[in-house]
C-alpha cells in the first residue's frame, strides 16, 4: 500500500489525509457544540473512530488540535476586509456593520463563539484570535490606508470589536444586546474610524 | 455546642461562619492561582480541610462558590467610581487611567484575571463581571451625569474597557501591551468620554 502511490501536496498518503480530515471534523464539531474546556482528545478520537494516540501523533495536544481544526475552516471574519471598499470616511461604520452581521449569521456564529470562549482558557485559541483580528484583517486594512502605527491602530480597533462581541453576544447584556444593529453601528463606527484613521498621538 | 451560643448577623453559629470563611479563602486561592476551569469543589474542600458535601451544602455549585468567593473581596474596580470627580471633559481619560492602574496593581490584578477568564466558561462569572462593570460602576456614573440612555452608554464604555483589558493583559498583544499606559489613556479616553457624554443617537 506504500510505494508508488500518489501523495498529496503536503507529502501525506491519501488515507492519512482522510483520517486527519475525519479527526478535524470531529474536533470542530466538539469545539463548537461543547466548547473548548469540555472537549477532550479522547472524545474526539472516539467520534472520529480512531485511537487517541493517533490524534496526539497528528496534532500533539488539544491546543494543536484546536488550531488545526479552526484553520481548515474559512474563518468568517475574513469578510471584514471587504469593508475597506467605499467612502473612506465611513470605513468604521462599514466594519462594525459587517462584523455584527457575521456574528448574527447562524452559519458563522458557532465558530466565533467557540474561538472567543476558548481564548480565555487556551493560549492557542487566544493566539489564533489575536492573529486573525489583527495580522490577517485589521493590520492589512490599516496599512492599506497608509497611516502610521498600523499595528497599534488595528489592535485598538480590535479591542473595541472583541469587547462589543463579548457584551452583545457572549454576556448578552440587554442594554447592548437589545438594541438594533444599526444603532450599534452609529455608536461604535466612529470609534473604529478614529482608531484606524484619526489623529492619535501614538509616538 | 449548640443551644444559647450567640449567632452572627446572618443567623449562623460562629463555628459555621469560620468554616464558610475557610472554604471561601481556599476557593479564592484556587480560582486566582489555577483559574476557574481547573478549580474543583473537591480540591477546594481538601484545601479547606472539609468534606466536599459541606461545600455543596453551603454554596450549591462551583458557580455559587465562585460568586460567593469573589463577593467577599473588595472588587478593586470599585475605585473606578472616583474618576467621576474632576473636569467633566476629561472623565474618559480619568476612567481609562484608573482602570489601567488597577489592572497593573499586583494586589488587584489576579482577581481581575480570574474573573475575566472565568467569564468565558461560567455563566455566574459572566453575570458577575457584567454586573460590576455596568450596574455597580458605569451606570451610576452615567446617571450622575444626567444623560439619556445611561445603561446603553455605560455598556458601550464597558465593552471598550473589557476589550482593552483582554488585548493588553490577557492576550498580551504587543502593539497594545508594549505601549505606555498614558498613550492608551490618550487613545481610548475620548472613546469612553464619547460613549458616556457624547451626542449618540440611541433612541
Automatic annotation (TrEMBL), chains A, B:
<dbReference type="GO" id="GO:0000976">
    <property type="term" value="F:transcription cis-regulatory region binding"/>
</dbReference>
<dbReference type="GO" id="GO:0003700">
    <property type="term" value="F:DNA-binding transcription factor activity"/>
</dbReference>
<feature type="domain" description="HTH tetR-type">
    <location>
        <begin position="17"/>
        <end position="77"/>
    </location>
</feature>
<dbReference type="InterPro" id="IPR041678">
    <property type="entry name" value="TetR_C_16"/>
</dbReference>
<dbReference type="InterPro" id="IPR050109">
    <property type="entry name" value="HTH-type_TetR-like_transc_reg"/>
</dbReference>
<dbReference type="InterPro" id="IPR001647">
    <property type="entry name" value="HTH_TetR"/>
</dbReference>
<dbReference type="InterPro" id="IPR009057">
    <property type="entry name" value="Homeodomain-like_sf"/>
</dbReference>
<feature type="DNA-binding region" description="H-T-H motif">
    <location>
        <begin position="40"/>
        <end position="59"/>
    </location>
</feature>
<keyword id="KW-0238">DNA-binding</keyword>
<dbReference type="Pfam" id="PF00440">
    <property type="entry name" value="TetR_N"/>
</dbReference>
<dbReference type="Pfam" id="PF17920">
    <property type="entry name" value="TetR_C_16"/>
</dbReference>
<dbReference type="InterPro" id="IPR036271">
    <property type="entry name" value="Tet_transcr_reg_TetR-rel_C_sf"/>
</dbReference>
<protein>
    <submittedName>
        <fullName>TetR/AcrR family transcriptional regulator</fullName>
    </submittedName>
</protein>
